[in-house]
Amino acid sequence: MDLKEQLNNYIPFNHQEAQDKRIILSCLEDYPQIFFRENLLAHMTASAWVVNRNKDKVLLAYHNLYDSWSWLGGHADGEENLLNVALREVSEESGLQRLTPVLEDIYSLEVLTVDGHMKRGAYISSHLHLNITYLIEADETASLSIKPDENSGVKWFALDDAVAASTERWFQENVYKKLNEKLEILGK
Q1: For 110-149, how does the pLDDT look when each residue is reduced to its tens digit (9 = 90+)?
Q2: For residue 9, what are the CA distances in angstroms to 50, 87, 176?
Q3: What integer pLDDT is reported at residue 93 of this predicted model?
């Protein structure tokens, strides 16, 4: 099933997701190269809410650019299967190799603003990440490693502690709390 079909079938969890779903579908239709960073206005990204087997802990990375603990994920860079992107990014950013999607479907979606910043000596203008989030399970006893050009720590947190560990207020209130709420509903 392609991404447009997945999005059309996706039932938004809240008003944020309903609005963001409309924007993502519109951008997929209207903007060329949306799966590539070369689209300077907006491009597709994938993130993962990585949980342990008991689903009472989540894996976060200390993201150097944002100076905050955050979920794992990254740019599609031409790959249209965003679950594969999320799995690749988790492996790259944490060193974990054995990852299992809890769901094959979209877990969450967000339109994220990215402020202008320097990366590898070049200025990157402010833009949007059209983000699809997947729920992925990993072994919390497996060895972790950092990706020095992106993060300086990778660590498991209790669910509420993961929200508190972020210094990005918007993510705390609008993304990470939502992901935990959805996890609680999934467990019922």
Answers
A1: 999 999 988 888 999 999 999 999 999 999 999 999 999 9
A2: 23, 22, 23
A3: 97
Distance between CA atoms of residues 112 and 93, nearest Å: 20
Structure tokens of 186?
């999934």
Alpha helices in 10-158 (DSSP H): 15-30, 82-94
Q: pLDDT tens digits for 45-63? A: 999 999 999 999 999 999 9
Its sign, for the CA torsion 12, 15, 20, 25, is positive
> For the chain, which residues make up each domain, given as ranges?
3-187
The rounded radius of gyration (Å) of the Cα atoms in the chain is: 16
**How far apart are alpha carbons 134 and 93 in whole angstroms?**
16
- At residue 102's C-alpha, the angle toward residues 100 and 105, to 5°, is 115
**Residue-level length of the chain:** 188
Q: How many CB atoms lie within 10 A of CB 44?
A: 26
CB-based contact 86:136 (threshold 8 Å): yes
CATH superfamily label, 3-187: Nucleoside Triphosphate Pyrophosphohydrolase (3.90.79.10)
